[in-house]
């Protein structure tokens, strides 16, 4: 476990996963073991969304890749790059067509191994500042590499009627629950405010462009910045949501601001 501390803020990171963000003793992050989800955060890369109805195949410019729901990055382990008292950097490096063991096999998938058709380097950085916690993702690889990126944090809820404010729209928890496993789309949005009783948390992003909201319980909600909402297309057409790398790495940011 890695701990970052600044003023009244304390962050816990376990193998690259954000497992705690406390401000003045108040915990904002969903805790493992609580009802709702077995994780506290993860990433969706290089695809977002389910692939079972497409026989776990995703078309890329080079060839067909085998991907389970939300990609293969989450099946890989982070490597620690650097660490200070307020900042820590992790990375995952992948070589094209390397087979990665699928944790969903055989209970939820018939694909024992997954692979992607491009090399990539994925970095995740945590920086604790006076205004909050900044999480930065840096994606690099060969020019024209296709990808989608989603960040999937889960936030602990305390009140019976939390409200998610997206622009001029107020979204209640019942609305998110009603959408179910597909997750609610919040398009063309880079900034969301979670109001939970007397507390609130601003989730401010850069270069994702959209959010989706998901929960199946009342004690947590996932507020997920995404580059593409996958349910706008059929699963066999997920490639329509790709972005492509150019000559430089692409950087995406999420700020959690109490």
TrEMBL record:
Mind telling me which Pfam families this protein's record contains? Answer: Aldose_epim
Which terms are listed as keywords in the entry? Calcium
The protein's required cofactor(s) are namely: Ca(2+)
Subunit info here reads: Monomer.
Tell me what this protein is called. Answer: Aldose 1-epimerase
Source organism of the structure: Pricia mediterranea
């Amino acid at each position: 476990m890695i701990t970052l501390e600044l003023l009244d803020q304390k962050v816990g990171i376990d193998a690259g996963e954000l497992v705690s963000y406390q401000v003045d003793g108040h915990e904002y992050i969903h805790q493992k073991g609580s009802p709702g989800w077995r994780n506290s955060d993860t990433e969706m890369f290089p695809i977002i969304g389910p692939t079972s109805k497409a026989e776990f195949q995703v078309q890329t410019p080079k060839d067909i890749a085998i991907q389970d729901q939300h990609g293969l990055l989450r099946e890989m382990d982070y490597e620690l790059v650097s660490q200070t008292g307020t900042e820590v950097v992790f990375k995952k490096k992948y070589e094209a067509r390397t087979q990665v063991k699928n944790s969903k096999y055989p209970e939820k998938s018939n694909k024992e191994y997954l692979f992607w058709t491009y090399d990539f380097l994925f970095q995740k950085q945590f920086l604790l500042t006076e205004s909050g916690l900044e999480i930065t993702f840096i994606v690099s690889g060969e020019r024209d590499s296709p990808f989608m990126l989603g960040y999937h944090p889960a936030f602990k809820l305390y009140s019976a009627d939390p409200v998610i404010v997206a622009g001029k729209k107020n979204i209640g928890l019942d609305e998110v629950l009603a959408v179910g496993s597909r997750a609610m789309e919040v398009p063309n949005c880079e900034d969301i405010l979670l109001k939970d009783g007397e507390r609130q948390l601003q989730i401010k992003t850069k270069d994702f462009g959209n959010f989706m909201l998901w929960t199946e319980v009342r004690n947590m909600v996932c507020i997920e910045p995404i580059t593409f909402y996958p349910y706008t297309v059929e699963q066999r057409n997920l490639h329509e949501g790709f972005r492509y790398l150019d000559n430089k790495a692409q950087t995406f940011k999420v700020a959690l601001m109490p």
